[in-house]
């Protein structure tokens, strides 16, 4: 190759690399503005399962006493809720969303699999103070027993691939938050539990589809709450 051809080749390679880096950067990291994100997520139909199906697990056969991954086996209990209750809960939360013109990105249920009673809703909303994006969770349910310990687990998929999963001790989850600001304090008293909780969606998250599953299991391995969300940035 002549020196000139070599220089041109190098230049072309350099240009291609620069362009690909820029494209990858733009594709992955450049997020649309908040109002566009809101519209993007509005398009997705309300009546979907918020990604629940994508987290469905075929329970592995386990040795006796062996724990399942993230204690997921607790979810096979009988359903003590009637079909009517389930329908009422669906209607209640759908009307709540429609009435307020919210953009739903998730739901909170009494269990993770099978027919679920809806206990709450997750919406996408703009923080008017600083223009950031918030996931706001509403949850209203009755706790039948005092809860003294348990686990909080989460799984996240990014563009349909597993990204992250982790479990925390429920009562240590909010250790670094001042007591007055906590969502709950242990032991959690039986009774009506009604909360609105905001979580900022960090601005550094790359563009793409995020699906999450988060669930709380008590000390008797009974699922108390299971939430799913599905949104795009
Ligand atoms: C939750 O329950 C409380 C009182 O029981 C009620 O005032 C509130 O409107 C409910 N929240 C939602 C989002 O339904
Ligand atoms: C929960 O604990 C309180 C004391 O903290 C007790 O008075 C109450 O009876 C307990 N409730 C249940 C359902 O066990
Ligand atoms: C706790 O709540 C208070 C009042 O709602 C608020 O001013 C403060 O910033 C909160 N602190 C944290 C660490 O969230």
Automatic annotation (TrEMBL):
InterPro entries: Ig_E-set, ML_dom. The chain crosses the membrane at residues 12-29. Keywords: Membrane, Transmembrane, Transmembrane helix. Residues 109-231 form the MD-2-related lipid-recognition domain. It comes from the Eukaryota. This is Uncharacterized protein LOC106071551. It comes from Biomphalaria glabrata (Bloodfluke planorb).
């Amino acid at each position: 190759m002549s020196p000139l051809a070599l220089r041109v080749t190098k230049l072309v390679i350099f240009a291609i690399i620069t362009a690909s880096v820029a494209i990858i950067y733009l594709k992955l990291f450049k997020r649309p503005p908040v109002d566009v994100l809101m519209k993007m997520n509005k398009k997705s139909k309300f009546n979907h399962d918020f990604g629940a199906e994508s987290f469905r697990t075929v329970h592995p056969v386990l040795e006796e006493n062996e724990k399942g991954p993230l204690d997921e086996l607790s979810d096979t209990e009988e359903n003590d809720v009637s079909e009517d209750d389930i329908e009422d809960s669906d209607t209640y939360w759908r009307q709540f969303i429609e009435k307020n013109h919210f953009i739903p990105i998730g739901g909170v249920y009494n269990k993770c699999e099978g027919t679920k009673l809806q206990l709450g809703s997750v919406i996408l909303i703009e923080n008017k103070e600083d223009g950031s994006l918030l996931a706001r969770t509403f949850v209203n349910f009755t706790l039948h027993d005092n809860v003294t310990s348990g686990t909080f687990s989460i799984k996240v998929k990014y563009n349909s691939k597993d990204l992250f999963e982790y479990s925390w001790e429920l009562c240590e989850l909010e250790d670094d938050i001042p007591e007055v600001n906590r969502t709950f304090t242990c032991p959690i008293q039986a009774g009506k539990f009604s909360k609105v909780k905001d979580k900022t969606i960090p601005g550094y998250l790359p563009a793409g589809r995020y699906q999450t599953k988060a669930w709380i299991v008590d000390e008797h391995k009974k699922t108390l709450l299971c939430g799913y969300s599905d949104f795009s940035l």
